[in-house]
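Hi support team,

I'm filing this because I wasn't sure whether my run with flavin-adenine dinucleotide finished correctly. The job status page said complete, but I'd like someone to confirm that the output block is well-formed before I use it downstream. Pasting the exact inputs I used:
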Amino acid sequence: MSILVYVENTDGKFKKSAFEVVSYAKAIAEQSGTEVIALSIGNVEESQLSVLGKYGASKVLNVNTEQLKSFVNQAYAAIIVDAAKSSSASIVVLSNSFSGKGLAPRVAAKLEAGLADGAIELPSINGENLQVKTGAFSGKAFAYVALTSAVKVIAVNPNSFEAKDSEGTATIETYSPSLDASDFSTIVKDIIRATDKISLPEAEIVVSAGRGLKGPENWGMIEELANVLGAATACSKPVSDAGWRPHSEHVGQTGIAVSPNLYIAIGISGAIQHLAGVSASKTIVVINKDPEAPFFKVADYGIVGDAFEVIPKLITALKAY
Ligand code: FAD
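And here is everything the job wrote out:
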């Protein structure tokens, strides 16, 4: 018996969530006495693959073929299923990322496994069964999902479980899954990056602004604040709808869901649809000139003030720090 973990990379570099899911699996393995096997798909160097040993993987299955360089949902799901079966995995763990959200249900269906997606804590183990706490209704509630099937699939929310490294080592095996043409009925022909800025879903700090900024010409100070903090920039939906910022920065129910360590919301009212995508952030700081703005109800820290006065002062103070 083993726990199989699918680890994601971008351009051959593991994402932070890769170390989080291996650490998550390791913590389950310590309670259930199983081993953790990581599965990497794509062109990741051996020196990187071996780092997974520090996070608790005893073995890394490495799939590296030209055909699989770009993400293909069906093919990647087929490989995860193949690897789960060949390593007799009783639990499959992956990140509840963009690609994980597409993979997890497909993998679960093929393995006839129960699925807990959006896990935010380690499961409690009750004999053969697991109970997993997940976020529900866009983060407004929690659900406890009981997994009673022989094989179980858990998709862990990024940034909800800390990656913990130690001294371990992992053996690396080249893995050659059996795939057929039907696994490639949809393929990604090319990926053109819109930006080389910090990836929003992966960012530890997000500086986000809304309609209170009045217009796109005022985003200079938002970008400067983000630069000083090493943060990604984000925005509310009306801002991207108006073309002030690209749609790739829109967070919320209909945009990207983020869960950074620090989310700074500037001139955003805090509508329920916006909160749906940001309420999993560890610390929320709200800057708004209206003391009645709903965002203050979920804020850890709040500044009631005019963004055009507060932000330049904040930038100066942070630069002097
Ligand atoms: P506003 O509501 O106009 O708020 C502007 C805020 O700026 C106010 O609180 C104001 O006090 C403050 N302000 C003004 N001037 C200043 C200043 N100088 N300094 C400081 N503060 C100032 N929205 C999303 O963001 N994401 C979503 O995914 C999303 N999905 C939606 C889905 C549906 C089906 C629907 C119906 C709506 C959705 N919305 C979404 C829209 C959402 O309901 C709100 O309309 C939107 O979030 C409001 O954006 P805002 O806070 O930027 O603007």
